[in-house]
Amino acid sequence: MATSPKPVKKVPIHLQSSQNRVYIKNGHIVNHDKSFKADIYIEDGIIKFVGPASEIVVPGGVRIVDAANKLVLPGGIDPHTHMQLKFGGCVAVDDFYHGTKAAVAGGTTTIIDFVLPDKGESLVEAYDKWRAWADPKVCCDYALHVGITWWSKSVAEEMKIMCEELGVNSFKMFMAYKGLYQLNDSELLDAFERIRSLNGVAQVHAENGDIIAKNVQKLLAAGITGPEGHELSRQEEVEAEAVNRACILAHQSDCPLYVVHVMSKSAGIEVARARNRYKNQGIYGETLAAALGTDGAHYWHECFQHAAAHVLSPPLRPDRTTPEFMMKLLAK
Fold this sequence. Notes:
Oligomer: single chain
CATH architecture of the largest domain: Alpha-Beta Barrel
Order of helices and strands: EEEEEEEEHEHEHEHEHHHEHEHHH
Shape: globular
CATH topology of the largest domain: TIM Barrel
CATH class of the largest domain: Alpha Beta
CATH superfamily of the largest domain: Metal-dependent hydrolases
Number of domains: 2
Number of helices: 11
Helix content: 25-40%
């Protein structure tokens, strides 16, 4: 015989765990638009109050953090992560648990990861796979972009499902990785037009995959197999050309465009020019902390492990004035 569940007794707020109620006092808050001194009261992960101490009655039992002489910043949002991604026969060392735990420790409270379907794979099935990886493990808020790694009528149809049913409105295309993820210009135009019709945002990995494939063959034939070959195969102009082309293709479709990981001065200039040309379209460029903090001279380091640890695509640039130049572009 079934029994009625016992009624849940609500615990008075002053007896609840203080971990759910935090009072930060005497801090200097730094927001995107201004900074000011104020106290903050947080309950169940929600900011309930920001203002002077005289305007709030703090309940008993809260955890108090004295932030005197300290800056209080909003949690960071990392819009470009790859947790436990399978690529090139390897798997990213950070899964959704270790990666997001590290993010929170560093002040990042939201990540946006990428669903990257295999060629021929359903977007919805790939999305469900990423959710199954992430949901049991994440330590912070997260969202997902979806990669358009191949093009067909079914992909276009599933993009609508992504937007209208699954809450995804940003899609990433690759102009690199020939034979794996790369779309040609005609496919890019089709994808941009579809994204525009869905009121979404297009993202591109901008490098000329055809040039890279040719350069790789030449470098391997010349016996260059070390980390330095990575940068030599995809130099600045190879990135800059693709950025310019992506901006023009997106403009032809009147599609908002977000160029991911802009890594060179030349590519940054192309983004800036497109933003000036197409003021009402919405052109955005993203760079990386690595591009602002170091350079590609490390690819020629005598220690292979040191050099290899700096490999990413597009690569860091040997021009050591790049970080300062990119920082000035961000300031604009």
